[in-house]
């Protein structure tokens, strides 16, 4: 073990404890509240730039890991600047009397759309009451009666004249509902049809001749009657319009005076007046003045309604809208429909606004993944932002999935700043695969996930904890508890010299530590409460880890942590379940034999190997060629396998482990099974850092503890990973007691010496290695593989035959 001390880490290397002397307080209730954005200067600068630049395409993509405060930061900044911005106008739709299929969009000053809607309701209600009253007035009735009497007298005079002419020709006149009938008169008496039929033919011929003359008079009479009726109706309608205009103008005068500065309303009101005058029967309550039948007036009266889409009455400054559920209709609005005669129909009263229109003149915040997951939302959002206008339409119409009636509301100009929040990975995917993305979202605000563990940021961390406690009315924390949270933060990002910027997770720990402090008789959250919260957080989700340890303990997973073995060792891997990860040792075996097939990656051959793992195996090929093939060709056939692995394997962190297994198999040198290994490598045999080092170490430690720590157990990690160590206290205590060891190496030569206790060996000028070294033994085996294998069998005797 003495030879290994130069690579062995001491307990102080395994954890960076917070210096309590740097915390200038005893409890956080003595600290001031701070709403400062911690360690996000770059992101804040980008946000301010994008928010201040009011130009097409300068929407903002907020990138970063979950829990870094992206949304809360955006909201805080917007709540500061939005009230200082101008309050946007209201928007409403009204009926287009010239083209009903194209409703008119009207922009009105703040709060005026709601008033306009109310004024139009009052207008219609007033007309429904006062127009019938005006038409029931004595003045109106007198004027109508005068017209009716005047033209009635004219019709009576015409009829009297017709009767006299008919009598001259020997006929009486009878007026029916549909015609004027002539009846012959003989000897002063009217002749009915039976008597007429009995008359002699010559007498009937004379009567018919006279009838033709009077029929001409009747035709002239009817023509004159129709003219009289038409003229009378025109005069009646003229009087009706005059009366109605007096009522309508009384209301419209107030409207025009109130909205005198609104040109669009001025034009609209003129159309309304004409439409009312042309449809008086709907206000009188009858389809026809002469018919006592109630009409279906609802649809026609709805044409005078005002559909308010955006009401900024209560808005102060620019609106801020956060869309939690960005479906197509929620974002762009909805055009409701009804079925009439088998077709979908719509009118302007069925248009509904979406979050994009409500945010017009302000800011819309959306989650990028939600936008991309909802049907047609991303494509429509790009189109809207490029054209800077929004039209209420149904996405199904575009695909021809419903019958349409050509209903197209007038588009509304759009001036909105969209702030899309998502991951960095999603940003780069959109940037590279969507040609419109970088033209629409020209500003990227990138939130960092870490910060230096300096005195400045330690103090800001403490202020953050104090602020959360005061804002949420939680118990405050002691200095020791704050120090533990800071150390937990370093563990989150696996860096002794940095802190996590994932304040969402830190806030969760603050809340959970308060929960475990509820029975604490003291008024503060102490170190024990924080430790309990961390322990319980892990306990709630570590069932998979416990099951794995159970399988190892019962021998279902063949993991050996004692003695030595040729061509096999324990690799350190991490299983990630999203909310939880843990380290698990995996047995890697190597088998070598004669042949020229090279390295066979069993995982790759069985299609269970990812690209990075394949790359690691190819690096081994490069290493063998560089290490042993400088002067002689290398002949090698070998297989590598992750034993008892039935899922996909990826990553190159096992590449050095696989090399050790190969070197052991080729040199016939046993590897200590009590030491587990992690670390990637390059073709020169230099060991490179890996991720998840804490979980990997702790996972193997738990297995060794289960089997019984005897002082031989340990792990070997890349030296570059030392700065990432923030191990649990149990591991540190075991290291301090010499029951567990952690070795940090820089090259595979150092690693093979730790694992075998045999020197690796340095090459001579001729490319050979000193005897009794690992590389010497490997080289000898490779040379033997390069020779033809000896064929066993008996020599054929002379003179014999078969």
Explain this structure.
By secondary structure, the protein is of the alpha/beta class. The protein has four domains: 18-37 and 450-539, Helicase, Ruva Protein, domain 3, CATH 1.10.8.60; 60-88 and 315-446, P-loop containing nucleotide triphosphate hydrolases (Rossmann fold), CATH 3.40.50; 113-302, no CATH class; 546-786, 2-Layer Sandwich (Ribosomal Protein S5, domain 2). The protein is built from 28 helices and 32 strands. The strands form eleven sheets. A seven-stranded mixed sheet has the order 25-26-24-23-28-31-32. The protein has a five-stranded parallel sheet with strand order 8-13-16-1-17. The protein has a three-stranded antiparallel sheet with strand order 3-2-7, covered by helices on one side. Strand 29 and strand 30 (687-688) form a beta hairpin.
Would you spell out the secondary-structure blueprint of this structure?
Elements: H1 41-52, E1 60-63, H2 70-81, E2 90-94, E3 104-108, H3 112-135, H4 138-168, E4 171-175, E5 180-186, E6 189-190, H5 193-198, H6 201-258, H7 263-278, H8 281-284, H9 298-302, E7 307-310, E8 320-322, H10 328-332, E9 334-335, E10 338-340, E11 343-345, E12 351-352, H11 355-358, E13 363-367, H12 368-373, H13 377-387, E14 389-390, H14 395-398, E15 412-413, E16 417-422, H15 424-433, H16 437-440, E17 443-446, E18 450-452, H17 455-471, E19 476-477, H18 479-493, E20 498-500, H19 503-516, E21 524-525, H20 527-539, H21 543-553, E22 564-565, E23 568-576, E24 581-593, E25 598-601, H22 602-605, H23 611-628, E26 637-642, H24 655-667, E27 671-672, E28 675-677, E29 680-681, E30 687-688, H25 693-707, E31 713-718, H26 729-736, E32 740-745, H27 748-756, H28 774-786
Parallel strand pairs: 1-16, 1-17, 8-13, 13-16, 19-21, 23-28, 25-26, 28-31, 31-32
Antiparallel strand pairs: 2-3, 2-7, 4-5, 5-6, 9-12, 10-11, 14-15, 18-20, 22-27, 23-24, 24-26, 29-30
